[in-house]
Amino acid sequence: MRLTLRSNLDVLAWILIVGIFAIDLRYPAEFAANLLYVGVILLALWSAESRLALQVAAVGTFLSIIDDLLSPAARDPTVAYFNRGVGVLVLWVTALGVRSYRRTVNQREAARQRMQEYLDIVSVAVLVLNPEGRVVLMNRRGLELIGLTEADLLGKSWIDVFVPAEDRRQWRDTMAAVHRGDRLAGSSQVSRMIARDGTLRVMSWSNAILRDEAGTLTGMVSSGEEITDRLRAEDALRRSVKDLEDLKYALDQSAIVATTDVRGDITYVNDKFCEISKYSHDELIGRNHRILNSGQHPTEFFRDLYRTIGQGRVWRGEIRNRAKDGSLYWVDTTVVPFVDDRGHPYQYVAIRYDITERKESEAALREQAALAQLGKMAAVVAHEVRNPLAGIRGALQVIGRRLADGSRERDIASEIITRIDTLNDIVNDLLQFARPRQPVLSSFSAAQLVQETATLLREDPSVADIDIRVEHANVMVPADREQLKLVLLNLLFNSAHAMQGKGTIRVSTAERDGFIELRVVDEGPGIPPHVREHLFEPFFTTKHRGTGLGLATARRILDAHHGTIELDSPPAGGAAAIIRLPAQPQKVEK
After folding, report:
1. Half-sphere exposure of residue 258, counting CA atoms within 13 Å on the CB side?
2. Half-sphere exposure of 575 (CA within 13 A, CB side)
3. Which are the contacts of 262, defined by CB distance < 8 A and separation ≥ 6?
4. Where exactly are the structural domains of the chain?
5. Of the candidates 518, 531, 527, which has an alpha carbon nearest to the alpha carbon of residue 563?
6. Are 478 and 514 in contact (CB under 8 A)?
7. N- to C-terminal Cα separation, the chain
8. Can you tell me the distance from the alpha carbon of 478 to that of 516, in angstroms, rounded to the nearest whole number?
9. What topology does CATH give the domain 442-582?
10. Burial of 94 (C-beta count, 10 Å sphere; 0-12/13-18/19+)
11. Which of 52, 74, 66, 87 is nearest to 22 (CA)?
12. pLDDT tens readout for residues 70-120
């Protein structure tokens, strides 16, 4: 439309020239006619061609000469030539000025077009504002984002029309910085712009001040990149990360988690892993899981585990591990292999749950079931074995008295009686373990009980060389005196036998934290690690003779008293047995 208008102006200019020539020819105006040509030249300001001004000046000059030649002779030639000369001069001065202006305008327009072309090929939106904040230019990418044409934007206030109210203050602050002359190169801001369909597009703008050659402020240029999708993606990523963190927190609160590489070396452990294993993070990272091996499981057990996960399959099972302090614990374990595109594992994640209490409860239930059966058997043994043994022993005593003193037959009868007594002791131990009587509580001196028990031990010739040293505090124990004496006597005999009948046993009593503590410490070889976990199992013994019921019976008695017993090997050597009983009487369970 703009080119059509300029073409029409060109036609109009030539029509006016013809009209002026005709008028000047009929009514010679001399200088005044040339001024009319000047008016036609000025139309070139809006013409498409800069040469129109020179063409009009040349034609005007030629027509002025023709007019002069064809004018009446009556005029004063000097005045006519002067007027015509001045008019032609004005004509050419105007033409040259218009041509120069037109060229300048065309050059600026060409430069603008080139700049527009350059800006249109970049992938970011480019916005140019004048000092008043009105749109001077926006490239193609910006027009695509906002959904408008250049005509819809040019000359309009960017802040008031295309920026939502919530973001206008930020833009106004930026424009204020422009007017103050603050340096904006590299400055950036994130704000929204209103698209044609009413949607809001989030843009990240970088701003710079524009100045002309004289340093005068001409406006501000901003390059913007739409980050709406990126912000949505970042928000979705943040939510995903938060969800993962929440899941990890929930998992860490309830499970024991570890990751390992394909070699089985630990690369990550959570706090619960450290808590149950008693190792620190630094002690575990980089170490192999073999550090926790308790020796409970055979080699084939772990071979099957590694074969399963090595094939990219999930393994589930129960494992007994050993903590740093030597204690054992059970974990329900699931090992999940992470595989690459070829299906090869590159990492393993092990999720475990502490089931030690469950395993102990299951063991206790099995023990109770076994004890129930043992109790029935003990009743049969008591009836079917102990009574006949008593009769045999009595008969042998009668026979022995009838035999001559010092005879070989009398010695044999005496040996048989001794063996019968040993067998009767075994039966009594079995009855005591299988069907212990309920405790009858009384309050008595702990020191006195230790002295009485030590006296009983010294009466045994096999441990006559044992030195028993008692360190006691004046404390009273609410317990069953005879049962507790049996427990203490068992411990003293165990210590004496461990030292092969020679050495010192130290027995101490004290009250700590609401408990009466009896401690028996010997100078023997200590307790081997592989023996320690079996000490309280019924029928387990390291002696050549014995039922293996002494410690098991002691623990059953102390359980009935709401007490505990522990066996350990102190760093100084030997073995230590620690009995703890409540300082206040507890209700005995029926």
Report:
1. 29
2. 21
3. 345, 346, 347, 348
4. 2-117, 122-232, 255-354, 360-434, 442-582
5. 518
6. no
7. 111
8. 9
9. Heat Shock Protein 90 (3.30.565)
10. buried
11. 66
12. 665 545 566 566 666 766 777 787 777 777 777 777 777 776 676 666 566
Going from the C-alpha of 216 to that of each of 210, 213, 223, 506, the distances in angstroms are 8, 7, 21, 101
CB burial readout 525-561, b (16+ within 10 A) else e: ebbeeeebbebeebeebeeeebbbbbbbbbbbbbebb
Q: Which two tokens stand for residue 516?
A: 């009466």
The one-letter amino acid at 566: E
Residue 409 amino acid letter: E
**Are 122-232 and 442-582 in the same CATH fold?**
no
Helix (H, G, I), strand (E, B) or coil at 339: strand
DSSP letter, residue 385? I
353 pLDDT band, cuts 50/70/90, is very high
* 332: β partners: 318, 353
Burial string for 246-277 (b: 16+ CB within 10 Å, else e) reads eeeeeeeeebbbbebeeeeebeebbebbbebb
Q: Tell me the CA distances in angstroms from 585 to 305, 308, 436, one per residue in order.
A: 50, 55, 19
What fold characterizes domain 122-232?
A: Beta-Lactamase (3.30.450)
- How far out from the chain centre does Cα 9 lie? 75
Pairwise CA distance, residues 169 & 175, whole Å: 10
> Residue 576 in 3-state DSSP?
strand
Domain 255-354 -> CATH class: alpha beta
Token code pair at residue 163: 């920026």
pLDDT tens, residue by residue, 32-74: 566 666 766 666 666 656 666 777 777 777 777 776 666 655 4
